[in-house]
Amino acid sequence: MLLFGCTGQQASTPQPTPQAPAQNVSPPAPAPLAKPTPTPGSVQNNSLKTIPRNGYVNLKEIGGEGLNVMSVWKPNASVSSDGKFTTEVSSVGAQLVIVTDKNGEVRASAISLPEDENLVFDAKSTTKASLWLGGSATQEEGTKALAMIETFKCYPDMYAYMKANLKQKSLTKIANFSNSEYMDLQIKCSKEILSLIKMPSISDESKITQSESNWKSARPLIIFEHSLSASSGNGILVIQNMDASGTMTVNSISLTTGSTTKTVSTKMAFAPGELKRYPVNIGLVGEANQIYELQISINYTDSNGKQNVETGGSHALVGRYV
Question: Quick check: pTM over 0.70?
């Protein structure tokens, strides 16, 4: 089902930094990795501010063969036999990054913050990414949001479930809506998150929270991650097919802001559970860290050959320009 990418309450509210339950404590991290050196292959020429980032996958908790780290800005970063890798991430805000296996199934996820030393994938990072409350947060906001996730009443059960299952199963299979055990946990967490964001006045971060909750609850296609360049107005939608019944083919996507509508016609097929990067070269420019709100219509053909339109319940896709 949904891999939540939401924002929570405002940073002004004091947030405790609780510990995970004792029975679920992650094993010690390996020695710190050397800082990576920027390479000519960086995506800086895309007008997007990125940096190389070293990290490791905790192979005691994350299973799968032929592991690969997938960032919006670098879709292929091989994981070595000892779990180490180097990828490319945003240098100006929080970003969701995932690990896939040789079959293209998602095995783990993590939130990269702009000033982090290393990027770690394990059961804890995957649980937090699934309940992410930070949006396009700064380092300080993101750190507080990640700490706040551990205060959720639903967190211990979700963490314990991830730790017990990620070694044997892919996250794609775990988070499928046909898995009732996971779905019960996710619904419990979703209700708790929504109870936190019901406010008389909705701030920018709360708008992002609701937007991401809505689009990750959409079916059959969810918007798993999104980013838009302030200087070029071009970006990426990371889309996942959550329908186990068959392949969905996205024919076009229309994005509307104000009176301006841009339509991107790029056919792309999504097998059950498959996640892909869908480029949206729409030229809707703005300013870095400024909020964008886009009404989205996804025109797709389902596994029976019928054309449909998905709109996320008419809820806008909200984020911050990078």
Answer: no
